[in-house]
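Backbones bend. We report:
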Amino acid sequence: MRRAFDRRDPTAERAAFAPRAGRDLSCAMKIAALVLLPAAFTALDAAAVPKWTELRANDSVKLSVDSASVKRSGDQVTLSYMLDYAKPQGSYLYQVRYRSVVTQATVRCKARTILMGNSDLYEGPAAKGTIIAGAVDAPKDRKFTAIEKDTSDEDLWRHACEAKPAPKKP
């Protein structure tokens, strides 16, 4: 007579009782996982793709805003912007070479001030490739500063604060 449990350890199940319990997933489940997981990751990745809108450009650098990142809260607008350089930038001292920088910023529309947040430095153009460094200001240095005329900060302010809201559908 076979017993399902060992007398010495009543909670341990014998292999003879459930011989198939240790097997892998069935073939159909493996195929479903191979098909559905990449599709799910692609859908998640597509939602995270930035939608860059160019605000200003010259021969050496281009300023763009991620339209999908713009979040309004009263008079304050938070957004991500990218500086895309034509030639690699960097510091020989720190041995860092990058082609684009994505920075988080908060703009106060009525006060015409801006607060720079964290920045990520990318090895490739258009925020592609590996993030090779990040820049975070010390808390004591995080202050809203006045926006000067004819600067890229003013371009960001115009994009965030003078943008016309989308017409409402009846």
